[in-house]
Here is the input.
Amino acid sequence: MYFSELASFFQKLETTDSRNAMTEILADLFSQASAAEIDKICYLCLGRLVPQYESYEFNLAEKLMFEVLAKAYGKDKEAVKTLYGRLGDLGGVAQALASEKGEVKSIKDSTVEEVFTKLWEVAGVEGEGSVEKKINLLAELIASLAPISAKYAVRIPLKKLRLGFSDMTILDSLSFMKKKDKSLRKKIEPFYNISADIGKIARAFKEKDLEGLESIRIVPGTPIRTASAERLPNAEAIIAKIGKCAAEPKYDGFRVQIHKKDQEVHIFSRNLEEMSASFPEISAATKKISVSSIIFEGEAIGFNSETQEFLPFQETVQRKRKYGITEMAKKIPLKVFVFDLFFREGQKLIDQPYHQRRQQLEEIFRKSQSDVFAIAEKKIFEQACDLEAFFQEKISQGLEGVVVKKLDAPYEAGSRGFSWIKYKREEKGALDDTLDCLIMGYYYGRGKRAGFGIGALLVAVYNAAEDVFESIAKIGTGLTDEQWMEIKKECDALKVEGKPARYKVHKDLNPQVWVLPKLVTVVRADEITKSPLHTAGKIGAEAGYALRFPRVMELLRHDKKPEDATTVKEITELYGMQ
Ligand code: AMP
Here is the structure.
């Protein structure tokens, strides 16, 4: 496929805001793609060159892109800047300059493969003089492209390809490509859940349909999509739902999925981002585990070994950084409480019942004698009163609550189910539970806030059934002046013209600045109410859910993906519990 053809698809996708229409356009794109290129096309569609969990950096900020475009089109840097000031999008600038220049006759249209390889080459330049080299290489590529192709090729290194759909839409589209409906999605998704490489899935499916997917296996190095917990308000409800069960403390740190094959270690966040470089002590301890291949999961938490006390989340989370790692590792050492095992010595374990996975996990880690790893405490309960006592004990130890696990359940990769139930302190008074909300945009604000240029946020919850975000509150409190500035900065980096396609918002709520779905913030409210202004859980003419007295409790949860935000289903349940 020619890159110009792919760019035309991008153009169509960009101007569509119905998810169904997007699914059909993507399906059309995938049917035209060959099996050899469909993986690259999937990554490119999501604005990347590799799967989501692999990290790479172009290190080409806007400032450098001015130079790239100046060079590509023989313009003065200031002229590029001025045009950018007018258009507000460097992709648009490239498109305009390329159109001005007219058709490039000497160069034949490049294929997707060729452009992909060039972009990859640009990202890979390292060492002395690398900036100059990157600029030259990219300018050469951009100059050879037609206007629409140039527009998208520029946005990819800037990480600003704004197509507005997620990996889930890609799965729907793969089904659509074969069946003209979404019915195969539920057959394709389990393979994606155990091997979160969307390109690999698309390629296997394109090559040999569902039979092709049968060859997809769990392999160390490719993350497994994480399971999430449902919630219930008390011990009685939990025992009534799943009967005899295991309960573990809910450690308040961040989740790590750890892979080891021989001496190669990968640590993925809950978001499936590669974090190995940030946690040298976890990597070192993993290398010492006495198995040659393993994938397991746990919660990493700052721990003071002298006082034997856990550190609060605000301190633990400082370890999620890319710089100053050694220093911070000394200041806040981590302990990983391991709680699940997915794979061991080539054997897939996620389909085995929880109690068997747990048993094997204990076997391995009892022997490991590591300062870094500890086995998450676990107790079996049959009576609600005993479970309640365990919960109270954990609360008194400063923990968030407990995670209750169904004894015979497999690991539910990539989904939220009642195999795991979280019972948290706040769940007691359902009204003041915290919610993870997606920031959709912001309003400039009045009075003192007008000076900051941000006065309120519009936030949403996730409608998983439709893969869209629905507004639930407008929030103007809970943040200090510094936090408002910080959040504005984060939002501005993700600013887009017009409402992103997956946002459902009442027209009277339009924020002044729209933000791409990326930032998750922790919100507390007094009550869930109904309001005709919000779209959360809204069906037909009925009112949606809204939050009464919402306030921001914790600025941003970078470890959560937009799709990890509290779901409409959870809101409906919480509303019922009130
Ligand atoms: P959620 O992700 O909102 O479904 O809530 C469950 C979260 O609790 C997981 O993502 C883990 O990060 C965290 N957690 C803490 N302790 C445990 C545990 N013992 N078992 C499972 N998850 C735990």
